[in-house]
Design goal:
This protein is an alpha/beta fold. The protein has a single domain, classed as Vaccinia Virus protein VP39 (Rossmann fold). Helix content is about 45%, strand content about 15%. The chain contains eight helices and seven strands. It has a seven-stranded mixed sheet, with helices on both faces. The protein starts with a helix and ends in a 9-residue tail after the last helix.
Length: about 240
Amino acid sequence: MSLDYATALRAKFAQQVGSEQIALLISIQTLLKLLESKRPSRVLELGAGIGTLTQMCLEKSSAELTAVESNEWCTARLKENLKQYRDYELISNYALLNSGHLADFLIIDVNNGIYNVGSLVSNSINLNLVFIEGHHLAHRLNICKTLHNNRRRQSFTDVREKRGEKGCAYFEIQEDSSFWKWKAHRDFFLCFSPLMFSQLLVKFRSKVGFVLDRLERIPGIVSFRKLWKGKIPWGY
């Protein structure tokens, strides 16, 4: 049933203008399972777009919902798409986020350059799950380090159909009652190591891609550049 719902929801929004950046099917499925299992009381969504994940939160959760979207066109489309649903708060400026918007369930689908989630995660003492739609490696690293700085336990799950494809990820968070917070340190090592490796790989692939771009006149280089899959190694 979750697959049917996720497929129908994505098909609805995929038909609309501006659907190029809507959530992946696997992301919708994963978030649906998390909403049903975690039963959050307050959800904060950063980067609501035209409302794909927002609609699911309204339909599949009874939590209070705050959605943030700074693009005026997307905001207008989101309001139109969700006008028949229950009340929720829509914020059009990230600068307006404050302590009153802290949540126990955070959804991120916005670039790190638009909003840095570090202070939000640090101040949200009741936060127990962070869901990230797409790759957003900068957010993943930032959240991992922020949780460690606050001595909170974390587990990281990367979800995708197969290596080489985009997907989503989520952090499950809990307080650490262990002596000297050793479990928080252990969790940080287990989560941060693969993320750091991914960052190094991204930089390596980017540098190689930069060189290949300047050697395009050499026979076969253009074809090889396409096999290189751009500058982001989705299959790390």
